[in-house]
């Protein structure tokens, strides 16, 4: 036998017929592969664990061996239990020459391969001193590993191994017994009504590899995007130990596997509040090139729409939420990350992927779709179950738990709350018909230090903004702080900002209790507007005394344009904004809701015969609602009035309303135009020869002065004579009349609206219809383009017959001669001389050079009407 092991006959194998799942009972064992010690072999380092000891040795992977072999001496050394074979099985070569007999088979022993691949395996004993273990064809067929022959190692394991061999470690207490079943979950916090569903609370099941579903996390990359890669982060000693434990646990659970992906994300840690470390993967590079999943997350405020009448609540928290979803098959390589231990990739959805929240929300929504907004609200891995009675609640909770179990979604019992009359959910305290702020969140706001930078102030306002629905006049109180978040404003912590910061904290300590809106009851909307903002309160009558109780508060600062509205439009704006904010509650109510306002003129809105354009637009929006307007004096309209008036958004009082603009005041001799003249005088001083009592106008300011007089509201675009007379009352310069004449003749408003005093110009005639291509063309220039290859102007030439066009790039706006040269070179040499050329009245086309050029060619010049480019529409549209 030693000769066989040293010389290695042509093929070595084990018991006779092809591989079977159970230990074979065969007439003989064939030995078949050539295994000379001088030839390359695949040897794996394996560890054998028995009840008494652990032994590490090399194992030969041989596809020619029909069974798995263990050296007889190794079996005796490990004191492995042996089972005699009756009768002994002969071992033979490929030519059926028997050279030994197999007499014993070992009991299953624990075999660990590649550090985390664990299984129970039985061997046939065989004298093999040089190779103590041989993993034959049955082992290869069962595990189907991907072998790196160049590196002489296992590159990756099969799906079977991920689900069975790479799971939690097999207990090593006894190799002759089956692994002990996982411990039963702790159900001390779970009502006895649901103990029969204990598997849904199983931690062991939640750690297993989930199945592939239609909701596997897909990672589609943007076309042409480069693959992200990140550097390896340095880790401290505690971080390295935590990383090693995390990698080993994840490999054992089958959540990750070794990778050879070209993608590499960084691996690092962030500290938790309790001092422990949380592993993080830096997927920012991958997220930047990932096609985004736009599945929406639910609005947290929408939870209040479904809680009408609910008195019993249960909150469920899913265990290992994201790890319950698989990465789409074939996309695992995109999740690869680097660690000092090597390169790994996820098989389950990790935290940090941009599409992870959307994928998980879609999965849970579809699992519980027929329960949503009936007695269930889901936000990612948080599930709220609510019912009106305890009997109904038990049925609802059981239905949800059963549905989760059927879809292999598991619940963390220690974080769940069952059958509560008051419960904390997503930062709110929910009780029978009421909503309150969470004291834990409010404490964080109260302990917030004074922000020292704009970024810290934005963090505070973002956190506080979550509870703005509980705070009256929130936007007005926070206005000094929100002004500091603008990059256009210097960040200076003023006394006003500090007072607003302190007041906001104080208001959070006395937040009111809001009631759940009930669509079967009548709503009351109280609105008010001031110069600074608008405010509104949504209320309903409830309780034994039928008192008005607030459901929500709303406030908003007015924009600069809105502050210019008259008081009636500002009050109407407050109504419009309140209806927009609470449209989902107020639209389609069973009975008309009431709007209380302290502006009596609004009562006539629906009966007014004349509305300004803004009111007319808004009236179309109001028509969607069924409401009545009721007048309430300001002395009784306290709540919305406070919302709109507590803070003025400007540091100084708003200017008084202007009744007559300054441009219409004729008697004043000091106008804004004087400043323009004063600034231009140093460059063109007064010659001192003008009429007394009149101011000299420098050349740089003459156009502005003529424009100011000619377009003034009291003048109303007068003609040349009247404009000159108005100017001559206070100003003078030598070419005043000529400049006025040039300006008025070019005024577009006068040309469009004033009838001509001259003789009729004659009727306009349509352009001649062309009968062949390129006999009639039209021209125009496209200017104002960014420079490209030294060109910034395009000469557009359009054939009026075929609509074909030429686009000639030019370095600048050409003269008439340059235009003629461009046409000859780029158009006429290709299509011939045209009969008619249509253009606008640009200087190139009205010059004598152009007319002479066209006359020589025999082409007719057709100019479009002044200030009417439509007559050259084909070219203008291009």
TrEMBL record:
InterPro entries from the UniProt entry: DNA/RNA_pol_sf, Integrase_cat-core, Integrase_H2C2, Peptidase_aspartic_dom_sf, Retrovirus_Pol_polyprotein, Rev_trsase/Diguanyl_cyclase, RNaseH-like_sf, RNaseH_sf
An MF annotation (GO) of this entry: RNA-DNA hybrid ribonuclease activity
The enzyme's E.C. designation: 2.7.7.49, 3.1.26.4
Protein name per Swiss-Prot or TrEMBL: Gypsy retrotransposon integrase-like protein 1
Record's keyword terms, sorted: Endonuclease, Hydrolase, Nuclease, Nucleotidyltransferase, RNA-directed DNA polymerase, Transferase
Record bears the keyword 4Fe-4S: no
Residue ranges occupied by any Integrase catalytic domain in the UniProt entry: 769-878
The keyword Glycoprotein appears for this protein: no
Compositionally biased residues, Pro residues: 15-26
Domain Reverse transcriptase: from-to ranges: 251-430
Residues covered by region (Disordered): 1-33, 172-191
Family of this protein: Belongs to the beta type-B retroviral polymerase family. HERV class-II K(HML-2) pol subfamily.
Pfam entry (one): RT_RNaseH
Alphabetical GO biological process terms: DNA integration
């Amino acid at each position: 036998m030693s000769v066989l092991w040293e010389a290695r006959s042509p093929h070595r194998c084990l018991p006779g017929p092809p591989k079977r799942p159970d230990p074979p009972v065969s007439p003989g064992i064939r030995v078949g592969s050539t295994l000379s010690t001088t030839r390359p072999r695949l040897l794996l380092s394996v560890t054998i664990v028995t009840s008494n000891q652990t032994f590490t040795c090399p194992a030969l992977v041989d596809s020619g061996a029909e069974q798995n072999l263990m050296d007889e001496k190794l079996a005796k050394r490990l004191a492995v239990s042996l089972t005699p074979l009756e009768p002994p099985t002969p071992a033979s070569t490929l030519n059926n020459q028997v050279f030994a007999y197999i007499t014993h088979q070992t009991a299953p022993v624990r075999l660990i391969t590649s550090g985390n691949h664990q299984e129970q395996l039985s061997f046939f004993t065989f004298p093999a001193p040089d190779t103590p273990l041989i993993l034959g064809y049955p082992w290869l067929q069962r595990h189907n590993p991907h072998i790196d022959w160049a590196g002489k190692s296992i590159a990756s394991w099969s799906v079977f191994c991920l689900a069975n061999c790479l799971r939690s470690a097999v207990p090593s207490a006894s190799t002759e017994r089956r692994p002990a079943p996982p411990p039963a979950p702790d159900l001390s916090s779970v009502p006895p009504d649901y103990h029969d569903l204990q598997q849904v609370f199983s931690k062991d099941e939640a750690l297993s590899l989930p199945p592939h579903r239609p909701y596997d996390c897909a990672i589609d990359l943007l076309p042409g995007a480069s693959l992200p890669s990140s550097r390896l982060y340095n880790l401290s000693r505690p971080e390295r130990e935590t990383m090693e434990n995390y990698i080993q646990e994840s490999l054992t659970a089958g959540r990750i596997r070794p990778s050879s992906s070209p993608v590499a994300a960084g691996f690092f840690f962030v500290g938790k509040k309790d001092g422990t470390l949380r592993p993080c993967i830096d997927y920012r590079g991958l997220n930047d090139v990932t096609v985004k999943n736009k599945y929406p997350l639910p609005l947290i405020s929408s939870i209040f729409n479904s809680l009408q009448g609910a008195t019993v609540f249960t909150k469920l928290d899913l265990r290992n939420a994201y790890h319950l979803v698989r990465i789409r098959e074939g996309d695992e390589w995109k999740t690869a990350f680097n660690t000092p231990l090597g390169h790994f990739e996820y098989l389950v959805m990790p935290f940090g992927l941009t599409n992870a929240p959307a994928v998980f929300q879609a999965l849970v929504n579809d699992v519980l779709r027929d329960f949503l907004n009936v007695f269930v609200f889901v936000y990612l891995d948080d599930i709220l179950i609510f019912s009106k009675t305890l009997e109904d609640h038990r049925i609802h909770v059981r239905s949800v738990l059963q549905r989760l179990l059927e879809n292999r979604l598991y619940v963390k019992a220690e974080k769940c709350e069952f059958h509560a009359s008051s419960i904390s959910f997503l930062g709110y305290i929910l009780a029978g018909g009421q909503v309150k702020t969470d004291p834990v969140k409010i404490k964080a706001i109260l302990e917030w230090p004074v922000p020292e930078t704009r970024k810290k102030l934005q963090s505070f306002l973002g956190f506080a903004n979550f509870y703005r629905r509980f705070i009256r006049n929130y936007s007005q109180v926070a206005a000094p702080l929100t002004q500091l978040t603008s990059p256009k404003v210097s960040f200076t912590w003023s006394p006003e900002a500090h007072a607003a910061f302190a007041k906001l904290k104080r208001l959070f300590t006395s937040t009111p209790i809001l009631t759940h809106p009930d669509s079967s009851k009548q709503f009351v909307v109280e609105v008010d507007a001031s110069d600074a903002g608008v405010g509104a309160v949504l209320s309903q009558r409830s309780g034994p005394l039928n008192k008005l109780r607030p459901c929500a508060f709303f406030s908003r600062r007015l924009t600069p344009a809105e502050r210019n509205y008259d008081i009636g439009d500002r009050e109407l704006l407050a109504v419009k904004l309140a209806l927009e904010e609470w449209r989902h509650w107020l639209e389609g109510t069973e009975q008309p809701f009431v709007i209380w306002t302290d502006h009596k003129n609004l009562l006539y809105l629906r009966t007014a015969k004349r509305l300004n354009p803004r009111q007319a637009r808004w009236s179309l929006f109001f028509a969607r609602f069924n409401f009545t307007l009721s007048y309430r004096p300001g002395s009784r309209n306290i709540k919305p009035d406070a919302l709109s008036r507590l803070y003025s958004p400007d540091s100084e009082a708003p200017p008084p309303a202007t009744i007559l603009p300054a441009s219409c005041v004729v008697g004043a001799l000091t106008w804004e135009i004087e400043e323009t003249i004063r600034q231009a005088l140093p460059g063109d001083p007064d010659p001192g020869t003008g009429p007394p009592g009149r101011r000299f106008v420098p050349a740089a300011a003459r156009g502005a002065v003529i424009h100011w007089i000619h377009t003034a509201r009291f003048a109303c675009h007068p003609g040349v004579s009247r404009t000159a007379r108005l100017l001559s009352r206070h100003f003078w310069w030598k070419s005043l009349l000529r400049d006025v004449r040039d300006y008025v003749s070019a005024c577009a408003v006068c040309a469009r609206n004033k009838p001509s005093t001259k003789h009729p110009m004659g009727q306009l005639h349509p352009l001649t219809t062309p009968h062949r291509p390129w006999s009639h063309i039209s021209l125009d220039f496209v200017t104002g383009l960014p420079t490209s290859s030294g060109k910034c102007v395009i000469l557009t030439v359009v054939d009026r017959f075929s609509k074909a066009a030429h686009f000639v790039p030019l370095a600048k706006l050409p003269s008439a001669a340059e235009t003629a040269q461009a046409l000859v070179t780029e158009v006429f040499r290709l299509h011939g001389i045209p009969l008619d050329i249509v253009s606008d009245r640009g200087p190139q086309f009205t010059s004598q050079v152009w007319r002479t050029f066209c006359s020589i060619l025999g082409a007719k010049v057709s100019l479009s009407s002044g200030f009417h480019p439509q007559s050259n529409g084909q070219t203008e549209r291009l």
